[in-house]
TrEMBL record:
Stored SMART domains: HTH_ICLR
PANTHER family xrefs: HELIX-TURN-HELIX TRANSCRIPTIONAL REGULATOR, ICLR FAMILY, HTH-TYPE TRANSCRIPTIONAL REPRESSOR ALLR
Every IclR-ED domain range: 76-258
GO terms under biological process: negative regulation of DNA-templated transcription
The keyword Transcription appears for this protein: yes
Classification via InterPro entries: GAF-like_dom_sf (IPR029016), HTH_MetabolicPath_Reg (IPR050707), Tscrpt_reg_IclR_C (IPR014757), Tscrpt_reg_IclR_N (IPR005471), WH-like_DNA-bd_sf (IPR036388), WH_DNA-bd_sf (IPR036390)
GO molecular function: DNA binding; DNA-binding transcription factor activity
Domain HTH iclR-type: residue ranges: 14-75
UniProtKB keywords: DNA-binding, Transcription, Transcription regulation
The keyword RNA-binding belongs to this UniProt entry's keyword annotation: no
Domain of life: Bacteria
Protein name per the record: IclR family transcriptional regulator
Length: 261
């Protein structure tokens, strides 16, 4: 009996979510609508339509227009859209630069953004010397074990850094940094010199370097990285590779509206 009730409750919640999304679609289509009009469009009682817009209003996803009883999309929609827009913008503006970097370095070049406690790759280009053709797009990787992640973490706010430093840093290889104090020292060094490197911390045989990409407001919004086999990306090559990545990151940043301090 309890299981049946839970299933019924889940179905009701899904229906409510679907109706709430329908409200947003209707307001996007018509611009503004009243509760009576929304109820008619959704084929629900006015009280149901009122509960839906009230819930959406609490999240700033809709807003009431003065005392006219009409509703329109709220500013909360912009907050949600900004996350996707930023991801699409950095991918669009970075593609040409990443293609060039991949050709110059001969390695796989990625752009990653921070998503909660992970680095997520949103763009990838292969170099002509790449021996690994794995698709990293959309893959979540630990911030503490990747070059992009360390860049994003080094320039993140104190809350994000603290959350990672106080979490359990699982060893992915024998080279993974699992000591919080050592990681903190590494992050400080990344912030000082402007780029990060990891050698076989995520996977044995894989080395990567990354540099920060800033948005129009100067915030580090993404990281561009080059990764390849450890026998080719050796410490002797780090300075040269890092120099190219930093220059590429600066170019992408300028395309996003950042022109330096």
């Amino acid at each position: 009996m309890g299981e049946t009730n839970r299933s019924g409750g889940d179905a009701s919640q899904v229906q409510s979510v679907d109706r709430a999304l329908s409200v947003l679609d209707l307001l996007a289509k018509h611009g503004e609508l009243g509760v009576t009009e929304l109820a008619a469009e959704l084929d629900v009682h006015k009280s149901t339509a009122f509960r839906l817009v009230t819930a959406l209003d609490r999240r700033d996803l809709v807003q009431q227009i003065g005392d006219r009883g009409k509703y329109r999309l709220g500013l909360g929609i912009l907050r949600l859209a900004a996350a996707t827009t930023g991801r699409l913008e950095v991918s669009h503006e970075g593609r040409e630069v990443c293609e060039r970097l991949a050709n110059e370095l001969g390695e796989t070049v990625n752009i990653a953004i921070m998503e909660d406690d992970a680095a997520v790759n949103v763009l990838q280009e292969y170099g002509n010397a790449s021996v690994m053709t794995r698709n990293w797009i959309g893959r979540r990787t630990p911030l503490y074990a990747t070059s992009s992640g360390k860049v994003l973490l080094a320039f993140a706010d104190e809350t994000a850094r603290k959350a990672v430093l106080e979490s359990t840093l699982e060893p992915l290889t024998d080279n993974t940094t699992t000591d919080p104090q050592q990681l903190l020292r590494e992050l400080d060094e990344v912030a000082r010199r402007g780029w990060a490197c990891t050698s076989e911390e995520l996977e044995i045989g894989l080395t990567a370097l990354a540099a920060p990409i800033r948005d129009g407001g100067g915030r580090v919004a993404a990281a561009v990285s080059a990764s390849g086999p450890s026998f080719r990306l050796t410490p002797d090559s780090f300075e040269e590779v890092a120099e190219k990545l930093v220059a590429g990151a600066a170019e992408i940043s300028s395309r996003l509206g950042y022109y330096g301090a």
